[in-house]
Specification:
Elements lengths: L20 H12 L16 H15 L8 H20 L6
Amino acid sequence: MKKKHYRVRIKDEFTDLSVSRQRRYQLRRQKEGRCIVCGQPQVAGSFCLRHMIAKREVSRRRLGLTKRNYSLSYRLEEMAKVAQSARGRRGAKPPKR
């Protein structure tokens, strides 16, 4: 006879809320300090850097904005690019002569 596997029901402050399962999932991730979309560590607000940038660009397209006002997401994106290029230079092989 096969053993039955049962899921353990999560009991926390979000269990009895009258919201959808997805919203409960998001609230749990937000409380843990993780992105509500993918679960990576939060940068600011409720999103990781990747999803913060995606949300910004969707919003810009929807509103028809062309100017960039260099808000927090732009500054964080620039810092991440600088850090990534610095990491790339350290591990790069020297050019052949």
